Amino acid sequence: MSDELNFVQKARREKLDALVAAGVTPFAYGFERTHESAAAVAALPDGAESGETVRVAGRLVAWRGHGKTAFAHLADSAGRIQLYFRKDELGDQQWSQLDLYDIGDVVGVSGPLMRTRTGEVTVRVSSVEMLAKSLRPLPYGKEEIVDGQTVRHSGFADPEQRYRQRYADLAVHPEVRALFIARSRLLGSLPSTLSVTRKAAHANVGVCLDTFHLFAGVSKLEDLDHLRPGEVEHVHFHDVPGSVPRELLADTDRTPPGTGVIPLLRIVGALRRIGYAGALSVELFDPAVQAADPGITARTCFAAVTRFVPV
Known about the structure:
Order of helices and strands: HHEEEHHEEEEEHHHHEHEHEHH
Largest sheet: 5 strands, mixed, barrel
CATH class of the largest domain: Mainly Beta
Strand content: 15-25%
CATH superfamily of the largest domain: Nucleic acid-binding proteins
Number of domains: 3
Distance between the termini: 51 Å
Helix content: 25-40%
Structural class: alpha/beta
Strand order of the largest sheet: 1-2-3-5-4
Shape: elongated
Mean pLDDT: 86
């Protein structure tokens, strides 16, 4: 870790301590919002200079202080909206606490809508709450308006680093988030995945059937009946314990086939129906299994798989 990063993180932790000392909960339990950012922007009719009171929440992505006033931009899953802070509206206590806020903090604000001189829909903040203090700086870049369009000069442009730190890439690049959301909706179930592969109509395009995701995701076992010969390219074959609720299952909960509650015989039957003769790969992400002797683990997994598919 660089000295500069050390300094920034130390400063943020000092701000965290100052918030706690002031009686502020730096990681609040919740915030009841009335609008997402895009809905709040749309709530101010064209030509109107002021509007209803809204409650919005999101991450601070820009901040510009001007003496006893400040402008900021708040981003959420729907977009972003400008915030306008005034000392005489917030009061001395809340205004002074704004010095403890940083880019990346998640906040909730309430206040009436207004339109600035440049025509931007803005929340004139009457109260602000810290919802989650950001302790590590995110690599936000600078933005400027060119010919009416927002141009972002990314502070996180190296492709390899973005792949290695996908969480940061998703946090600072809304277009990447939108792509991931669209992709997850498209491929969120077996039927939708089959729809994509069939439209591709290419010999190298098929389904990687994962028993964990089939069981823990939004698909149903009945979806297996839609499979056609040649559509499954590979199978990840594992089980999950019955002690963990389905909605709480994590990758590290995968266990060897036959040791849990996934109806693997039903899945094997569907694979036989379409003539699948490819590999069955066991993925075990449990740290305890990964730390075990590789030879013993391999033999255990082989014995588990051959219970369902004899060699």
